[in-house]
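Late entry, written up from scratch paper. The run itself happened at the end of the previous shift, but nothing got recorded in the book at the time, so transcribing now.
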Amino acid sequence: MPQELTIGLFGFGSVGSGIYHVLKKKNIPNLNLKTIVVKNPEKPRSISAKHFSYRPEDILDDRKINVVLELIDDADAAYFIVKQALKNHKHVVTANKKMLAHHFEELVTLAQKQGVSLLYEASVCGSIPVIRTLEESFDYDTVNSLKAISNGTCNYILTRLFQQPQPFEDIITDAQKHGFAESDPTLDIDGWDSKYKLIISNYHAFGVLNRTEDILNVGVRHVKPEDIEFAKEKDLSIKLIGHSKVVDGKLEAYVAPQFIPTSEPITSIAFENNAVEINADFAHQQLLQGKGAGSVPTASAVLSDVTSLLKDYAYPYSKARQNTIEPTSANHDIRFDDEKLIKVYISAYDRADLQPFKFKTDLVCGTQKQLQYKIGNISIKNLKQQLMHSNSKVFIAVFPD
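Output as recorded:
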C-alpha cells in the first residue's frame, strides 16, 4: 500500500501555483495538500487569501505534514526551510538550484541521516527528467560527457540573434516582455544559473561534487552581431553549454558559449527550450529535450518527485557510491581537472580589450567588420583567473573537441 502523503507548500509563484493547480486537477489518491505558506500577504494571487498561511512553522512544526515542497526564489530562505524540514523528518522536494549547489553535501547527508528523501528533478531542466534518467538508466553505464542547454533565457537570446542579428539589449527587453527573462537577468546571462545546474548534474553523472568556485562560468552578455556572422560563415551555431567530459579519469567542466557544427542535433534546440546530451559507453549519444522552465512544465517535474515518494523513492547516488565502494568501476576516482587546455575565441570592438588575455598557444587573430578577435589555447583555470581581473566587454566562446 502506498503511504499517505500530506504536503506543505512553500511559495505560490510560477511553479508553486503551477503545482497547486496540477494537484487539484489530478486528484491523486493518498496525496493531500494541507498548507500553503507565502511571504507577502499583500501580493495578489489567483486563489483566495483564505488558502494561505504566513508562518513557516505552520508547515515545519506540523507533525501531520510529511512532505515539504520548497518552491521559493530566495536561496537563503530556501536553505533554512529545507534544512529544518529534513531535521523534522519530512521529505523535501525543491527546485532551488542555487541553494542546492551551495549546500549540496550537507543537505544530502542530512536527508540520509534522517531517513527521508531529498528530491530536486525540477532544479536542473524543468520538465526534462535528467536526474532520474542518469540515476536509473545510466546507473551502470559509464557516462563520458554531458552537454546541456539548461537556461531558456540564453537560448532564447541566441536563437533570436541567429534569426536576425540585432543589439543584445533589444532582445533582452523583448525576452522580458514575453516572460523569458527576469527583470534582473544577471544569473541567467552570465552563466550562473547554468553553473548551479551543472554542479547538480555532475554529481549524478560522475559522482563528483564540484564547488561553485571551481567551475568557470562565462555567459552571453557581450555577444555581438559580428560574432553571430563569424559563426554563420563557418556553418556553426552558438549555444550556452554546461559542459562536462571525462578523459583518463579527469573531469573537465565549465559553462560557456560553444561553437557547435549546425549538423549536430543539439543545435536544433530553439528559443526557451532546454536539452541535455548524454554520451555513455553502452547507450552512446542520447538527447533529452523539452520545456526547461514555465509554470506547468516545471510543476510536472515536481509532481514526478512527489508521486515517487508514494513508492518511498530516494536517489541511490549510484555514481558516487561506485566511486566510494566499487574501486574496480570505470567511474572510480574521477577527479576534477581545470588544467585542461581548451580552444577559445575572444572578441571585442577595441583590440586593447583583448590584450589582457594571454593564450598558451596563439592560433589566429582577425577582424569581423568592426570586431577584433583572437583564437588560442588556454587552460580552464587560467581563463577563469584572467576573467576575474578583466573589466573588458569581451565575448568568449569555446571550440569543443
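The CA atoms of residues 150 and 274 lie 5 Å apart.
(Scratch paper discarded after transcription.)
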